[in-house]
Design a protein that fits this description.
Elements: H1 2-10, E1 14-17, H2 27-30, E2 41-42, H3 47-68, H4 70-80, H5 85-114, H6 117-131, H7 135-141, E3 144-146, E4 155-156, H8 189-214, H9 220-225, H10 227-240, E5 244-249, E6 255-261, E7 274-278, H11 291-295, E8 299-303, H12 317-333, E9 342-347, H13 351-360, E10 366-370, H14 376-383, H15 389-399, H16 404-408, E11 415-420, H17 437-449, H18 456-466, H19 471-480, H20 485-499, H21 513-527, E12 528-531
Helix pairs in contact: 1-5, 3-5, 6-7, 8-15, 12-13, 14-15, 18-21
Amino acid sequence: MAELLLRCIIGPRLRRVHRRPRHHGDSAAAAGGAGGVGPGFYYQPRILEKHSDSILGWAYVLWSVSYYTSPLLLLYFYRKGYIVMSKIIPATPYASAFLLFLTGVACLRGMSRWANPEYVEFITILAETKKQNTEENKRRLASYSFDFGHWPMDFSWSEVTSPKGGSVPNGGVPLLKPELKYRGAGDGLVCNILRLPCQFVSYLIAKSFGRRMLYPGSVSLLQKAIMPMLIQGQTRLMEEYQGKRAKLISCDGNQIDTVFVDRRTAGTENGKKLVICCEGNAGFYEVGCVSTPLEAGYSVLGWNHPGFAGSTGVPFPQNEANAMDVVIQYAMHRLDFTPDSIIMYAWSIGGFTATWATMNYPEISALVLDASFDDLVPLALKVMPETCRGLVTRTVREYLNLNNAEQLCKYQGPLVLIRRTKDEIITTIPDDIMSNRGNDLLLKLLQFRYPKVMAEEGVRVVREWLSASNPLQETALYSRYEVHDDWCVSVLQSYRSEHGHIYPWTVGEDMTAEGRRQLAIFLAHKYMRNFDATHCTPLPASEFPMPWSL
């Protein structure tokens, strides 16, 4: 009894009991309890638990506000002369009394839970699952929505060997390292010492507000504000699509919150394919881009960035790549999808992890990038003062280097880019479609894959094609340059049959300028699709394209 009371005191907050399909021989289902076929319902705490939760919740908000404003608070207290022992010691009893009060509130909440049969049933199932992590126990536990930190581990990166055949360094999986350029050519001890102040400032910027500006979804206060929306989205995935939630452990020890919807039993071609979704900087799989492939009938694996919702850690590039790696390992070794049946789908900043995945797992069948960009530096410079240009560039390159284009060019497979014609986020000039960084992503890709076609004339006509913001303008440009799709396809197929499929291709080397212009526009049209919408408009399933291939 004492052990059960302790579990109720320190146990997680229960939010919802999901509706699950009936399983043969399941007594709980037969009784209409958790795991049964009855409708799902939100957990109703008793009065004491409800008010205790409210008090502890406000204490958490107070702590979060204090944490984020701590530099200003410390400066204020220092100027007022409060940070001295003569002021701190008298305040200690008040702090101790406040902590004792919160402990008492937590105990009262536990006693209220102890008297609630629904919570006792849940906490008993959770304890049994932690002792014996069997499929039956996990199925029963999956009927509950609660704080994900208490969820048992389902898969660890250490369960499989590295795809490269060796061990992973302490920092994690490999990343492309940026070439850092400093003023002057000196690399001696004195030059390194002189750079230390700037490096220290860059470190502080990246670790404080820089990371939170780049990934606002990792801010705990924002997560708390949108928690009802996340629970509603999670309910939809669990109850309507029979989603399977799982906790993955990446090589840096972070816990990654994932959900898997299996459509293989539907018997459709789309259901046999797995779409791994990479969300934006304020996106969560509960309310993110997973809806698009779900509506299109694909099997779907969604995951949250480190520090988002149930995932732990912070979303720096290295942690992001580590998380992406364990998600792919989980898809291949636990969900039993082969790489050639996996499609990477990314929205916005999710393009970094998606391009990392295709760079390191080149057997992945396809890549779809929606509203993504080539490089973070131009977008960071857009929102920062011009006087900070050097500092911003250095900070991004050293700590927040999202080099999507560089990673994309390492992938040899089929891909498609989706450009939002009214995008207001990844444009450097408002209402200027030519400043959309998706344009630069396409140009860098084509220049790498088809360098002879994308000579000076090729770049010019592709830029002209990119200036078209609607299908009518695209068709007019196609007609003006007399682009013949059949001829372009035959030229490319002939080159591939003779030289192989490995990029870069030298096709267009002995071609007329007119032929290169036709090929350039044809390739741009095949690699990029326009979608007449703003950055955050959900992509309809009808607009979810599969990449073009010869």
